[in-house]
User: What shape does this take?
Amino acid sequence: MNVKTLGALAAVALVAACATKPAPEAPAPTPVAAGIVPGSQEDLVANVGDRVFFDFAVATLRADAKATLDKQSAWLAKYGSVNVQVAGNTDERGTEEYNLALGERRAHSAASYLKAKGVASARLSTISYGKDRPTAQGSTEEAWAQNRNAITSVR
Amino acid sequence: MIQIPNPSVGRRTLIAGAAGVLTTAPGAVFAQAASGNQSAVIDVNRARTEPIPIAVPDLGGDEQLGRDIAGVITNDLARSGLFRTIDHAAFIQSGPSGSTPNFQNWKPTGAQALVTGSVQGSGGQVRVEFRLWDILPGTQIQGTAYTTSQSNWRRIAHKMADVIYERLLGEKGYFDTRIVYISATGPRDRRTKRLAIMDQDSENNRILTDGSWLVLTPRFHPTRDEIAFMSYANNRPRVYIFDLTSGRQTQLGDFAGMTFAPRFAPDGSSVIMAVSNGGGSDIISVDLSSRASRRLTESGSIDVSPCYSPDGSQIAFASDRGGDQQIYVMGAGGGGARRISFGNGRYATPVWSPRGDLIAFTRYAGDTSNFSIGVMHPDGSGERLLSEGWDVEGPTFAPNGRVLMFYRETRSQGPRGSGFSSRLVSVDITGFNERPVPTPTDASDPAWSPLGA
Assistant: This one.
């Protein structure tokens, strides 16, 4: 019950934020690129942001990460039937086994924030790929920064 | 190469179920050397600086097998770094079969030890006889015969190399062993990883999983043809047991969180591993018959990579409970963990030597990304680094505790991952004799089998 109430509140907050939009009862349509289905993974990537980034060796949410997760929780409140998986990843520095745990900690960190923002636990799952699914294939600071993340994807 | 038709890669049952087929009968075929004859035994430490010169001419009898078996023995001994195999071009005569060698012909080659033997094959069976000689006094050190199916000829060669190693160095060899590892193909951002197994000399490579799911960190059971590993089957990363004889995979336990980093207890009755728990991970042990689990740590931090001491009384593991990741040792029942790593950087993947006297580890400095493989005593003293690189990690001990294998990754040179590679490497525990261990594909996560597995 609490979760549902929180979800409703989050939805209201979203609508309130879009003050210029007309009907407060019906959720305002998010501006979408042509061909993108609202509530889809593409929608999440293009209009919300599917991932948050971390500093080296930690799972602490930075301000930019919290801002993205706020948008994700609002989006999830809007599309109440969408379930997501949060996948934690690490850069290549660190051992395989430790990075599996660190990736899980990052996924947990992001998912816990979404829960606190009202997303029902049942809609969230986590997984860690450690250093095995890097987004960027390079071995530079820029590549590592991209690879230290938690990626939310529609299930 | 001879293909073994049996698709099973279990080997213990092959031997046990065929007691009459593969027989080792020291002394039954030849007269053994006098038991007090230890003149050729050389200390390993001396062999590191002065490798034992040994002549391994082709065995007599079946020409092809005689040459192949001598080749496998030569390769095993040479790769250990403790033997100097004499080039066949320096031989004055080829190896005699059966009779006593003319030692005058072998002394000029500089060899101290000589291997002679013969191979007789018929109906898919082979009988291999061999003798090991101490050239200077002209005495026989060992005489052994093996009978087996012809497809097993490589194992016979490795067993012979183990006998030579043990008789000349005074401790067990590690040549009749296998390596289980992760084979990796494809671009770096979507690697296909498969469980793979091969002989320790890189022969008889087999792929065990089809690559549908990511698999990681395989480890050998101490007495059975089983491997514990981690699989992402059905997108649920959990520890599984792979039965090498049947090819069957079974999930170990039923946990809500990810289970990973498995290792068998020394008596083979249980698996110790990590289970994720609310942003951290705990060490648990799972009994293999009852599947009952027991939580051994619950620190709220990341506790990972547990490994038993060979007597089963202690557990080494990595933890970031003090901030940076370090190595801790606790009793097998959990509790009383004490930190043992205090050098520069983060310490990971502690692995206890089968001898009990060393813990091998991966060390890395977070800011420079330079990794090292090293060893220290279980109380944390005597730290030595054996190899360094961009990323070297995951050490595993040969069953005699003399050699470590690990994997080495090279740095990506561009945004597409060019220049990245992952390869297996072996090194003596003193840091000498580092050698690549060839694999058909990129490879990581090696685990050495027990002797004879």
User: Anything to note?
Assistant: Residues 412 and 420 of chain B are 4 Å apart (CA to CA). Chain B has a mean pLDDT of 90.
